[in-house]
């Protein structure tokens, strides 16, 4: 009997060694194929030249949806389909900002933020609201009433440990404080104007909001600090109409655990000031190339891999919110074991994890194995951080573990975020290649795991969000799930 037990143990160990060796061989084969692929970059360059921006509800947005569907199909994915949703699609028209001091007036360049009024002309005294955080507005007291608030998009001269808020959250605070309009000041120098939604939920806000350059914001503050009384007149004309947009979905069916789904997503839509090459063509077209390459390999992942390109992210996570609601109603959400979000990712150096016990260690172990393939390009970091305002948020708030690449694209890229310089010249082909290499490697690791940790419990999720300091922002946005 003792000999039989030892023989059984030896057999199991040999089988495990064979599995480990097979997985290592498979990982290296995928990496070798991915290392020479720049198909995602070539597709993105074509889209930038022939489609341009990918604003949800626009003709270009529809063209981008059709392109993604065609590329998934031409790559031979097992299943390709669209999940449509309706949305109010805002589009910018004309905007004008005039600053008066009682003696004369001047025009200042600006861009309207999205989901601002369709037609308005608002004139109000300018009040410097600093970073636009709750403590800034409390300090001003009644001065915020019927005023044009001058608000930093980033944090300036903030105390250590201060957390910034999203522009839509600052707009909500300003609105609650009785502001007549908002002038956001960009912190990127060089006359860069930035757009983005001023609305948390995609509905139009009732007051106008626009963005100024860092230089013009500084000049206004200098004049205010010298005692001048300044009045801003903000005029804008925009349009909005209900449209049908589509999340584009494709799958590779798992060979061993087909009912377990690893969802890999990123938003396809972009703002309209440029072509959205980094935000988020970088992530979206990496996903298209990843799907193509995984389908071309002579082996199939054990779990089902679902690739999703979301529309409407920029207007308030519209596509991902719709898809999660759809999954929740159908019971499909329980099959989604985790959601990997590629939003402005490139040259990943590891992965951030938002999940209950077990997920951090699982991803850290996977990172160690990925690093053995290329320690020069992949640092193998694994962190536990939570953040909001991208397509992982609706999944997270419904308990689904989320994972995202840890990337640093550089100031030259982040300085063009949501602006007129976000074009293909910012994209390094190798950054997209490494997206495919390292995200693909992680997917294979998760797909082949003997078991995966579960979803958040309600108490576990609440504790994790509190620990991450996200209760305040979620309450401002109306997304805090508890009373």
Note down, in words, how this protein is organized.
By secondary structure, the protein is an alpha/beta fold. The chain is built from 14 helices and 14 strands. The chain has two domains: 34-87 and 242-476, 3-Layer(aba) Sandwich (Aminopeptidase); 95-239, Glucose Oxidase, domain 1 (3-Layer(bba) Sandwich), CATH 3.50.30. Strands 1, 2, 3, 4, 5, 6, 7, 8, 9, 10, 11, 12, 13 and 14 form a 14-stranded mixed beta sheet that branches. Helix 9 links the parallel strand 12 and strand 13 (381-383). The N and C termini lie far apart (61 Å). Mean pLDDT is 95; it is low at 12-18.
Fraction of residues in H or I helices: 25-40%
CATH superfamily membership of the largest domain: Zn peptidases
Number of domains: 2
Contiguous helical run count? 14
Please tell me the CATH architecture of the largest domain by its name. 3-Layer(aba) Sandwich
N-to-C SSE string, H for helix and E for strand: HHHEEEEHEHEEHEEHEHEEHEHEHHHH
The CATH topology of the largest domain turns out to be Aminopeptidase
Could you give a short account of the major beta sheet? 14 strands, mixed
Tell me how many strands there are.
Answer: 14
Rg calc: 24 Å
Low-confidence stretches: 12-18
- State the separation between the terminal residues, measured CA to CA: 61 Å
| Broad CATH class of the largest domain | Alpha Beta
Query: What sort of overall outline do the alpha carbons produce when their principal axes are compared?
Result: globular
What amount of the residues lies in strands?
15-25%
Q: What is the structural class? A: alpha/beta
Whole-number mean pLDDT: 95
């Amino acid at each position: 009997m003792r000999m039989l037990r030892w023989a059984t143990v030896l057999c199991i160990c040999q089988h495990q060694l064979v599995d480990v060796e097979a997985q290592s061989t498979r990982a290296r084969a995928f990496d070798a194929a991915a290392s020479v692929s720049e198909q995602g970059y070539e597709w993105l360059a074509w889209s930038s030249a022939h489609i341009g921006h990918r604003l949800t509800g626009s003709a270009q947005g529809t063209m981008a949806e059709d392109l993604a569907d065609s590329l998934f199909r031409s790559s031979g994915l097992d299943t390709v389909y669209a999940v449509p949703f309706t949305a109010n699609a805002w589009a910018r028209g004309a905007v004008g900002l005039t600053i008066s001091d009682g003696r004369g007036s001047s025009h200042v360049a600006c861009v309207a933020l999205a989901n601002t009024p369709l037609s308005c002309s608002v004139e109000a005294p300018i009040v410097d609201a600093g970073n636009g955080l709750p403590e800034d507005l409390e300090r001003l007291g009644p001065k915020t009433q019927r005023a044009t608030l001058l608000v930093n998009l980033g944090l300036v001269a903030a105390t250590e440990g201060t957390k910034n808020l999203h522009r839509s959250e600052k707009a909500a605070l300003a609105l609650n404080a009785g502001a007549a309009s908002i002038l956001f000041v960009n912190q990127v120098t060089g006359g860069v104007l930035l757009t983005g939604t001023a609305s948390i939920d995609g509905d139009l806000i009732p007051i106008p909001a626009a963005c100024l350059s860092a230089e013009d914001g500084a000049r206004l503050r200098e004049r205010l600090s010298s005692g001048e009384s300044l009045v801003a007149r903000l005029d804008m004309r925009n349009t909005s109409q209900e449209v049908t947009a589509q999340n584009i979905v494709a799958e590779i069916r798992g060979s061993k655990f087909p009912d377990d789904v690893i969802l890999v997503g990123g938003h396809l839509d972009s703002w309209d000031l440029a072509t959205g090459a980094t935000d988020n063509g970088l992530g979206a077209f990496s996903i298209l190339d990843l799907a193509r390459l995984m389908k071309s390999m002579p082996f199939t992942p054990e779990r089902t891999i679902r690739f999703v390109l979301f529309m409407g992210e920029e207007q308030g996570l519209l596509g991902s919110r719709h898809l999660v609601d759809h999954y929740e109603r159908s019971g499909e959400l329980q099959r989604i074991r985790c959601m990997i979000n590629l939003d402005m990712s490139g040259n990943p150096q590891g992965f951030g994890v938002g999940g209950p016990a077990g997920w951090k260690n699982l991803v850290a172990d996977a990172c160690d194995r990925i690093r053995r393939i290329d320690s020069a390009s992949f640092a193998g970091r694994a962190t536990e951080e939570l953040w909001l305002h991208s397509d992982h948020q609706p999944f997270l708030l419904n308990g689904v573990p989320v994972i995202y690449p840890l990337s640093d694209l550089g100031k030259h890229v982040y300085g063009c975020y949501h602006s007129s310089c976000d074009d293909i010249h910012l994209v390094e082909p190798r950054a997209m290649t490494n997206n495919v290499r390292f995200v693909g490697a992680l997917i294979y690791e998760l797909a082949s795991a003997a078991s995966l940790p579960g979803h958040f419990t309600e108490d576990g999720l609440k504790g994790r969000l509190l620990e991450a300091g996200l209760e305040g922002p979620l309450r401002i946005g109306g997304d805090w799930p508890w009373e």
